[in-house]
Structures are given as structure tokens and as C-alpha cells.
Design brief:
With 508 residues, chain A is of the alpha+beta class. Chain A is 38% helix and 18% strand. Classes of the chains: A alpha+beta (508), B alpha/beta (533). Chains A and B meet through loops of A and helix 11 and helix 12 of B. Chain A: GO terms for molecular function: asparaginyl-tRNA synthase (glutamine-hydrolyzing) activity; ATP binding; glutaminyl-tRNA synthase (glutamine-hydrolyzing) activity; transferase activity.
Chain lengths: 508, 533
């Protein structure tokens, strides 16, 4: 992809004001799809099964658009959508309606998408977005509406993997009908040179909100959360908004930041040279760090929206909305402020957690009873190490509740750190809760001193000079005996206790 | 013997089955024999499930012999309109685009038939995707009216109505979007009911216009329609527009109506806008006579006005094509049905276009184009939006009328059965034929069509339409059964006793009366599935 001419970022900002807008799609983690009883590949914990299911196996009549099939709204998806709307500070519509968005495309089984048009379930909200230096920026939300995802096309035989030049295409309808909430912002003014940073922080905030609500795993690399970034520039002092582009395929927080920066520089170069911006969809290329033109998008795209006659309007009761509002967790911004203060973390300790995307896990682990420092140690230590070696997110390996239980076992002396690491492996391997793994693998620390004393006696018999060395003040000599005992006990001994017993023996 | 069994109503046949006087295999064979004998001329069936029907009949006989309760209609044969999905028979909606398509599932109404131990005889002909009033738009050749094979059997459900009228089946399932059950009933001398919208599940009914479609019974008597309605009706969680409520027994309502023929205290409204100019003289005459009969039985007859009914056809022919253009978008060759690849291959877009060009007939294309236009940006408010407003006004007309009266009456259709080709050249005149039936679909209220005699000028059946407030389907059955009994008392026999002998095959007379594009095509039409025929 040939890189286009870019204007220096600071120069671009001197001449033009950037205006942003985002459309973020969230795949809800419901058990079944939006309008069908088929399993949802984006369901919580679906990674081992549904996510990797063979093509066209997670489908029901509606997902294939079979003649005579009818959609039925997933009640859980509606609850999730209302919760999400409330967390975004939106009003929840007393009556909202589905509409058909009509267009022909082979990944769209019915050749229309069931979406919401002028009657979305949630509208008019705002989200507080914290930038890296702690500045809080308020992003206005226009609406959040429910819709269904399309299937997936794989273009075969071409060189680019795109439809142009392909010999044929494969269609997988497993993703067709996955419940989505699309969150649309109003135009965002005033971000200025922090626009790229705000873009990243906004998407991160949405991700944190979604995860704290427990409505989606919100994993960008899997497409659980997808962002389309709209960027336009207007010359300083001009009232009228410039022509915008919509950049798709930005699948990480870093990409969001880079793509917005790139679009600002690219558009600025064109405008500065007296050119004009084409209203179009652009694709972000992670490898080369550029955007390339996609489909020209005109406002005249005619989707022939009309109210979906197969579904009745959604009329949530006041009681339901009140119940969901009462159940909202604290906002990620408030949560972060509290975490930092209450847990007494330094800025850098806190930032490590943020970077590792483990704030939510940490909070839940502490809520389950663990000390903040211990929780931080385990998540950022052993768990993160295993996650990195496997190329997955730490949060998906083990539940905060299990981590808390593991920490409690160490605190009570039932496990040594070394044993606890083995238990952790067992839990991650799906062998059960820490307690269950301890029992099944027989890993509990031997707290019965007689067994330890016998092992110590045996070790001392092999190294008779050790006690004398200790009495001479060479306490470190105990290490050799401890090592031998631990080996003999296959690691189930508490090293500290063994050391105590050896020292007692030397003083006797 | 066979002829006797086919002449029985469904409820009479059910009585004989229950009494052990006949077996389901005998009853099913009799109807299959009748189909083999005359369907070459009538062409009511697109698929005949000979072997499967006999096998199922024998299973039901065995169940009964083993002492199981097989239900009130267990073992009675039935015909099913081809718009309904059946997992063991092709379901084509009479379109080329679905030729040979066998769905992997049953429509809810079909599943309910099967669990009630009815015996599906086969699938009946219709206008393609239920678009039409004559079955002339079937891709597999028209069905002919058993009263006169040169005339249309009505549409879209002409196949079900003709099968029932010609004693090929005791009763049948139909679907009614703008009159597709009631108008065929009128021109074939049978009974047909469009239930309250939401009263019967649409799951598995190949959609024409989702907000108007409703599945319903086609029969020779009001009681048979009620018995069938009791089986197919009721809430279905797979159809979100299905009403979640308990319904009274319609069969009980029909029996009560047939027992007590007094109509004192019943207020009946005659819709001023659904009669008069444009209605055939014989239709108006029989309608007026029926009103007199009702008055004699004690009913109070008043004229009511529904001022917005005159806009019903205009609104209907915007809403229906709009919804249909979207509902029919799925027929694109990608997942099921016909696929036509242009010579030398083509892009997916070109294959979709070629498939739809070859697979859809002219009326379907006409309505898809109309509907696409009506929904287009810039036209939506003027067309679809205005039509929805008219729909609301028509609902208000009904509300106002039902404040004055219990039931509304009109002729079911402006004329008796017309001849083939009479209206295909002028789509608008075909559309106008539905003027009487469309308002009930737009408002979602139930309507029943039943025969009230033969028109003096042509000796063909005339139908009466009865409409009740939404959810008051039981009122239709009660009143319909009373009127049916009063008429049969007056005539001394059911109307269908006057059906002339149905020819075993069709000889066009004179040659060329059926336009060439409507003549049966080689390889098309009835496809028996086994050796029963």
C-alpha cells in the first residue's frame, strides 16, 4: 500500500481543527443469538468451543434466512443493551423498534439486517474518558442500538484476500445473528492535539464499561469490540464541518490511536494542498500503519429502512429499567480512582495494571478477599507470564475468585509459593478450583512435623556436619538440608517450617 | 364406497373413524383415488404424498386399534397450501425459484396437524408467493374451478379451495394476506376463515407480507373450519406476532350456532362501501336475500359506513409490495433454491440477478419493483408512510362500526368466478377484485367467507363475508354456523350438492381461451411421490 503524503502532525493541528466520531460495535456475550436459538460464538467462555466451531454449524433456520423462518428477540440481549445504555448515561426508550436495513450481500442471509433505525433502545448519553495524565474528557453519546451481525466471507483464489480478483468465496453463517450493540457518538470537538490519545482512551473506556457490566468479553483481537473511527478536519475559524472519512478494521487500542493520527495528517496534507476529502470508508493496515480507500460512501446510500413487521416493539417496564440501573457496577473511571487510592498503589504500580488490562480482575480478586498487594503480585507475575507465553489475555485464564482462593491458601500456609504455582497451572488447565486441584494433585503442604522431622533426620544423617556449621553461625548451611528435605517430600513441605525445625535442632 | 367417503365432511368422517366404521387407510385411499381421477383437469395439487399419506394413515389406524386417543380429527386427510413448509414434501410457494425445495422443518401449523394425527395428502397450488386472485400466476400452471374448468378458482389459494370443493380433500390449510382464503371460498362454494392477526402462527409460512399474512382453514362446513382452527390456532413462541392468550373452542361456538338458530338481539352491519356499483347483479341479489333471511331469524340489520375503505386497495398495494420486496430478497441462490449462472460465469451479483430474473414470475417482479420504489428514500413518507396512516384510519372505521354492531357483512367478492385470462392483461382490475377482503387484513380483524347460493345469471357460487372485531373469531363461527343451517334448511341440501360432475381432464373450449403462458408446461405440475397413483 503506497503511503500517501502526510502533513506534520503539529503543523496539521495549527491549521486545522480535528473533529472525531466513533461507531463502536459490541458483540454481546449471550448464550444464544440475537434472534435465533443457535449458540452464540461470542458467548462468554465460548473460546474453546463455539468460537472455533466448524463453519455453518452454529446456525438455526433464521440465521440462514430460510423461507418461513421468523426472528424472536433474545431477552438477555435486551437486558444487556439496557444496562449498557444506562452505563453510557443514556435515556432508555419507553418504546423502541427494530427496523429492516435492506441491501444485497451474500454474508447477509436475508439480504436485510435487522437493526434499529429511528427508534433505538438508548439515546442521549455521555461518557467520561480519562486521558493518560488524568484529565477527564466528556464524550457525548448519540445513541446505542441493537442489531444482528452478518456472516463471514472468505475470498479464495485471489492474491489480496479481497473480493476483487477472487475466484470464489466461502460463506460462514456462524457469526450471522450474533447480538450487537452499536454505540454512536455525537461529533467530538476540542480534543485538538490529543485527538489520537482521546480515540484510544475512549475505546478503552467503552471496553472497560462493557467488561465491568459483564455483557461482553470485549476482546478486540477477536472482534468482540470493533471500532469505526470518523475523522474530519476544518480550517481554523470555520464553522462548517469538513468532509469525514470512516476508518474500519482498527482492531487494537494502539491502532485506534495510530489510525486517527494518520487520518489527521493525511487529510491535512490534501486540504493544505488545496484538495478536497472524499467521503469514503477507509481500511486500516496494522502492518504498514496506513489507511487505504474502500468504498465511496455517499449519504444517498438507500437502505430502504422500514419497521420490522416480524417483531413487536420493545417496551421495557419501568421496574426492569430500575432494577438494571440499581445493579450497575461503579463506572470504570470511579473504579480506577478508588482502586488507586484504596489499595495504595504507586503511579507506576497502577499503570502496570492498566497496561496489562487487569484492573477489573484485580478489583474482583480483592473483593473476593485477597490483599491488594498479593492480588497484584499474582496477576502481574505468574498469571501474566503464562498469558504472555500463550499469547492470550491474562483475564481469560483464570477467574478472580480462583486467584483469591489461591492467595488464601498461601496465606494460611497450606501452600508454598512453589506449590501454589503448580495449583495455578492445574486451575488454568481446567482441573477445577484451587481447592480441588490441591486435593486431586495431593499438593497440600505437609504440616505434620513428625513427617518433616523424619525427613530432616534422614538428611542430617547424610550431612552430619551441618548442625555444627549452624552452631558456628553459618546459618546458610541449613540450605543444603532444606533442599534435600524438600526433594524428599516432593515439594509438599513448607520450606520455612523445615528451616525452623533445623534451627531448633541445632540449638537443642 | 370411495365416492361416499369423499363426500363426507371432516367431522362426519371423524365420527365414522371413531366408531370404527371406516379406517383412515380407507378414507385416505378414497381421497387419493379421487385426486387421481380428476386432478388432471382441476390441477389443485402440486405434490401428492400418496405413499406417505397411506403409511401415516395406517399408523394412525394402529394407534387407534391399540387404544390410544388419536384426537377428534385423528385419521382425517387434509390438503396443505404450498406456501407452508413441510419437512417431507417440496414447499415451493408455486415458484420456480423454490422448485423441488424441501425445508428442513415443518411450519408450526403443519406440526400441529401432524400431532393431531391428520393425514397430509399433498401440497396445493396457488399464485406464486400468494400474489394473485386466480392461481393464474402459479409457475406450474393454473388450478381450474371445479364448477367450470374454464374459470378461475380464485387466488391465491385456488388449489386448496378447488381441492375441497371437488371432494379431493375434506378440508385444507390456506393463507390469507388480502383475501387468499375468502375469495377462493366465494368462487368455489366453500368456507374459508382468515383468523384474527396473531391468532395462528406464521412460523414456517413463506412470507408474502408479514403484517398481513394469516394462516387459516378451508372447508366445506363452518364446523369443519372451526375444528381445524382449534388445532392450528393458539400462541407460538416462535412467532413474535402471535397473540399470547387462551382461545375458546371454535368448534363449540359452531355447534352452539347450529343448534340455536334464533338471531334476536344480534346486530348486523352492512358496509355501505362494500357493495353497489361494480358488483355483479346476481351477487347483490343473493346478498340481499341473505339479509332478508337473517332478519326473519331475528337479526337487526343496519347500514354502516366505513369512509376510509375506499383507500384500502391503494394502501394495501403499497404496504404489501414494500414488505414483499424485503421478504423476497432472500431468494438469491446463495443458500437454497434455484441458481442460474450466466453463460461464462459471473460475479455473485450477476448470479443473484440471473437467478431472480429466471426464478420469479411477472407478478412477483412487478410487486418487488413497486415495493422497492415505495420504500426508497424520498418516497417513503409519500407512499409507505401514507399507507400506514390509511391503515390506522381503516382500523378506526372498524372500531367505530363495531361500536354499533356485532358483525359486519359484505359480499366476499364483487363477482362470481371469472374466466382465465380475463384480468391478467390488466393487473389493476385483478387488484380491484380484492376490494371486499383487504380491509380485514389491514385492520387485523377476522373474516369468514361462506356460500350463499348460485348467481342466477351464470349458476356460479356467490360468497358472503362476515367480519368480527379482533379476537372475536368465536363470534364468526357461531353466527356462520347459524346462517349455514338457515340456508341449508331453505335449500334442503348443502350448496356443493349442486356441483356438476367434474371432468377427469381439461379440454380447452374453444382453443386458445387459456393464454399460452398459462397452459400447463411439460415437466411441471403434479408430481406423485410413489406408486399410490
Amino acid at each position: 500500500m503506497a503511503a500517501e503524503k502526510l502533513l506534520d502532525f503539529d503543523v496539521a493541528l495549527e491549521k486545522f481543527e480535528p473533529v472525531l466520531g466513533f461507531e463502536v460495535h459490541i458483540e454481546l456475550g449471550t448464550v444464544t443469538k440475537m434472534f435465533s436459538p443457535a449458540p452464540n460464538p461470542a458467548a462468554f467462555g465460548a473460546e474453546s468451543g463455539a468460537q472455533s466451531a466448524a463453519p455453518n454449524t452454529l446456525i438455526a433456520t433464521v440465521d440462514l434466512g430460510l423461507p418461513g423462518s421468523l426472528p424472536v428477540v433474545n431477552e438477555q440481549a435486551v437486558r444487556y443493551s439496557i444496562s449498557l445504555g444506562l452505563a453510557l448515561g443514556c435515556s432508555i426508550a419507553a418504546t423502541s423498534r427494530f427496523a429492516r436495513k435492506n441491501y444485497f450481500y451474500p454474508d447477509l442471509a436475508k439480504n436485510y439486517q435487522i437493526s434499529q433505525s429511528d427508534e433505538p433502545i438508548a439515546f442521549e448519553g455521555e461518557v467520561e474518558v480519562e486521558l493518560d495524565d488524568g484529565t477527564v474528557f466528556t464524550v457525548p453519546i448519540e445513541r446505542a442500538h441493537m442489531e444482528e451481525d452478518a456472516g463471514k466471507l472468505t475470498h479464495m483464489g485471489g492474491s489480496t484476500g479481497r473480493i476483487q480478483g477472487a475466484e470464489y468465496s466461502l460463506v460462514d453463517y456462524n457469526r450471522a445473528g450474533v447480538p450487537l450493540v452499536e454505540i454512536v457518538t455525537k461529533p467530538i470537538y476540542g480534543a485538538e492535539k490529543r485527538a489520537p490519545e482521546l480515540a484510544r482512551a475512549y475505546v478503552a473506556t467503552i471496553r472497560d464499561i462493557v467488561r465491568s457490566l459483564g455483557v461482553s468479553e470485549a476482546r478486540m483481537e477477536r472482534g468482540n469490540l470493533r471500532c469505526d473511527a470518523n475523522v474530519s478536519l476544518r480550517p481554523r475559524g470555520q464553522e462548517k464541518l469538513g468532509t469525514r472519512t470512516e476508518t474500519k478494521n482498527v482492531n487494537s487500542l494502539r491502532s485506534v490511536e495510530r489510525a486517527v493520527r494518520y487520518e489527521i495528517q493525511r487529510q491535512a496534507a490534501i486540504l493544505d494542498a488545496g484538495g478536497s476529502i472524499l467521503q469514503e470508508t477507509r481500511h486500516w493496515h496494522e502492518d504498514t500503519g496506513v489507511t487505504s480507500p474502500g468504498r465511496v460512501k455517499s449519504d444517498a446510500d438507500d437502505y430502504r429502512y422500514f419497521p420490522e413487521p416480524d417483531l413487536v416493539p420493545i417496551v421495557p417496564s419501568r421496574e426492569l429499567v430500575a432494577e438494571l440501573r440499581a445493579a450497575l457496577p461503579e463506572s470504570p473511571a470511579a473504579f480506577r480512582r478508588r482502586l488507586k487510592a484504596e489499595y495504595g498503589f504507586t503511579d507506576s504500580e497502577f499503570q502496570d495494571l492498566v497496561n496489562a488490562n487487569l484492573l477489573v480482575e484485580l478489583g474482583q480478586t480483592v473483593s473476593a478477599g485477597a490483599a491488594p498487594a498479593q492480588a497484584r503480585k499474582w496477576w502481574l507475575g505468574e498469571i501474566l507470564r503464562i498469558a504472555n507465553s500463550r499469547g492470550v489475555e491474562a483475564g481469560t485464564l483464570i477467574s478472580p475468585f480462583d486467584v483469591s482462593e489461591l492467595i488464601a491458601l498461601v496465606e494460611s500456609g497450606e501452600l508454598t509459593d512453589r506449590l501454589a504455582r503448580q495449583v495455578l497451572e492445574g486451575v488454568i488447565a481446567g482441573e477445577g478450583t484451587p481447592d480441588e486441584v490441591v486435593k486431586a494433585r495431593g499438593l497440600a503442604v505437609v504440616s505434620d512435623d513428625t513427617a518433616l522431622i523424619a525427613a530432616i533426620d534422614e538428611a542430617l544423617a547424610a550431612q552430619p556436619d551441618v548442625l555444627d556449621k549452624i552452631r558456628d553461625g553459618k546459618v546458610q548451611a541449613a540450605g543444603a538440608v532444606i533442599g534435600a528435605v524438600m526433594k524428599a517430600m516432593k515439594g509438599t513441605a513448607d520450606a520455612a517450617r523445615v528451616r525452623e525445625l533445623i534451627l531448633e535442632r541445632a540449638q537443642a | 364406497m370411495g365416492d361416499d367417503l369423499t363426500r363426507l365432511t371432516a367431522s362426519a368422517l371423524a365420527d365414522k373413524l371413531a366408531a370404527g366404521e371406516v379406517s383412515s387407510v380407507e378414507a385416505t385411499s378414497a381421497h387419493l383415488d379421487r385426486i387421481a381421477e380428476i386432478d388432471g383437469g382441476v390441477h389443485a395439487f402440486l405434490h401428492i404424498a400418496g405413499d406417505a399419506a397411506l403409511k401415516r394413515a395406517s399408523e394412525v389406524d394402529q394407534l387407534r386399534a391399540d387404544g390410544h386417543d388419536v384426537g377428534p380429527l385423528g385419521g382425517v386427510p387434509i390438503a396443505i397450501k404450498d406456501v407452508l413448509c413441510t419437512y417431507d414434501m417440496p414447499s415451493t410457494a408455486a415458484s420456480r425459484i423454490l422448485e423441488g425445495w424441501i425445508p428442513p422443518y415443518d411450519a408450526t401449523v403443519v406440526a400441529r396437524l401432524r400431532s393431531a394425527n391428520l393425514i397430509p395428502l399433498g401440497k396445493t397450488n396457488m399464485d406464486e408467493f400468494a400474489m394473485g386472485s386466480s392461481t393464474e400466476y402459479s409457475a406450474y400452471g393454473p388450478t381450474r374451478n371445479p364448477w367450470d374448468l374454464d374459470r378461475i378458482p380464485g387466488g391465491s389459494g385456488g388449489g386448496s379451495a378447488a381441492a375441497v370443493a371437488s371432494f379431493e380433500a375434506p378440508f385444507a390449510l390456506g393463507s390469507d394476506t388480502g383475501g387468499s382464503i375468502r375469495q377462493p371460498a366465494a368462487v368455489t362454494g366453500t368456507v374459508g376463515v382468515k383468523p384474527t392477526y396473531g391468532g395462528v402462527s406464521r412460523y414456517g409460512a413463506i412470507a408474502l407480507a408479514s403484517s398481513l399474512d394469516q394462516v387459516g382453514p378451508v372447508s366445506r362446513t363452518v364446523l369443519d373450519a372451526a375444528l381445524l382452527h382449534d388445532i392450528i390456532g393458539g400462541h407460538d413462541p416462535r412467532d413474535s406476532t402471535s397473540l399470547d392468550q387462551l382461545w375458546p373452542s371454535f368448534a363449540d361456538a359452531a355447534r352452539a350456532g347450529a343448534e340455536n338458530l334464533a338471531l334476536s338481539g344480534v346486530r348486523i352491519g352492512v358496509v355501505k362501501e362494500l357493495g353497489g356499483a361494480g358488483f355483479q347483479a346476481g351477487v347483490t341479489q343473493r346478498f340481499t336475500e341473505t339479509l332478508r333471511l337473517l332478519e326473519q331469524a331475528g337479526a337487526e340489520i343496519v347500514e354502516v359506513s366505513a369512509p376510509h375503505f375506499e383507500y384500502a386497495i391503494a394502501a394495501y398495494y403499497l404496504i404489501l409490495p414494500a414488505e414483499a420486496s424485503s421478504n423476497l430478497a432472500r431468494f438469491d441462490s446463495v443458500r437454497f433454491g434455484l441458481r442460474v449462472t450466466p453463460e461464462g460465469g459471473g460475479t455473485v451479483e450477476q448470479v443473484m440477478a440471473a437467478t431472480r430474473e429466471a426464478g420469479f414470475g411477472p407478478e412477483v417482479k412487478r410487486r418487488i419493483i413497486l415495493g422497492t420504489y415505495a420504500l426508497s428514500a424520498g418516497y417513503y413518507d409519500a407512499y409507505y408512510g401514507s399507507a400506514q396512516k390509511v391503515r390506522t384510519l381503516i382500523q378506526r372505521d372498524f372500531d367505530a362500526a363495531f361500536e354499533q354492531v356485532d358483525l359486519l357483512l359484505s359480499p366476499s367478492a364483487p363477482t362470481t368466478a371469472f374466466k382465465f385470462g380475463e384480468k391478467t392483461a390488466d393487473p389493476l382490475s385483478m387488484y380491484l377484485n380484492d376490494i371486499t377482503t383487504i380491509p380485514a387484513n389491514l385492520a387485523g380483524v377476522p373474516g369468514m367467507g361462506l356460500p350463499i347460493g348460485l348467481a342466477p345469471e351464470d349458476g356460479l357460487p356467490v360468497g358472503l363475508q362476515i367480519m368480527a372485531p379482533a379476537r372475536e373469531d368465536a363470534r364468526l363461527y357461531r353466527f356462520g354456523a347459524t346462517l349455514e343451517a338457515l340456508l341449508e334448511d331453505a335449500w334442503g341440501h348443502p350448496l356443493l350438492d349442486l356441483l356438476p360432475t367434474v371432468p377427469h381432464s381439461y379440454e380447452p373450449k374453444p382453443v386458445g381461451r387459456v393464454p399460452a403462458h398459462l397452459a400447463p408446461q411439460p415437466g411441471a405440475g403434479t408430481e406423485p411421490d410413489g406408486g399410490a397413483l
